[in-house]
Write a structure and sequence with these properties.
flat, kinase activity, 160 residues, mainly alpha, Diacylglycerol kinase
């Protein structure tokens, strides 16, 4: 069965929404990521700073989604305790833990030094750089798409 590009993006997006709806840790990581990215709008970041912060946030979310997929797959095949199933779930959770530790390191190495130099003048930077506006637009589009898609998911596409 060959899927269209639109269907492939739709399934990928629904995977993200499923993770956000069902996984407590995913909600925590996602909210923390939004908070850090929002904070970064007010700090005097250069391109590399944004790169490190965005990569750290994305890595945590990606590993959490992989963890969710592995847990669902293992649960599909066995409901009983199995040593290999435990190893698979523990290793996936360990990957999330390492990504979270990495993001904490990025927070202390990139964000904390910038907070020390924060002043009211930096609050006006948001109007000066189109990159900030682009990030805000992407966030708003994501929220809009999530809101609009939520209504369609109740129509019975069978994702949830």
């Amino acid at each position: 069965m060959r899927r269209s590009l639109k269907e492939s993006f739709s399934y990928a997006f629904w995977g993200l929404i499923y993770s956000l709806r069902t996984q407590r840790n995913m909600k925590i990581h996602f909210l923390a990521g939004i908070g850090v990215l929002t904070l970064s709008l007010f700090l005097p970041f250069n391109g590399y700073d944004y790169l490190f912060v965005f990569f750290a946030v994305a890595l945590v979310i990606i590993t959490e989604m992989i963890n969710t997929a592995i847990e669902a797959t293992v649960d599909l095949f066995t409901k009983d305790y199995h040593r290999l199933a435990k190893i698979a779930k523990d290793v996936a959770a360990g990957a999330v833990l390492l990504a979270a530790i990495n993001s904490i390191g990025v927070f202390f190495l990139v964000i904390i030094p910038k907070i020390k130099g924060l002043s009211y003048l930096n609050l006006y930077r948001i109007r000066l750089y189109p990159f900030h506006i682009l990030l805000l637009l992407i966030g708003l589009l994501f929220l809009l798409y999530t809101f609009l898609s939520y209504g369609r998911s109740r129509g019975g596409r069978g994702h949830f």
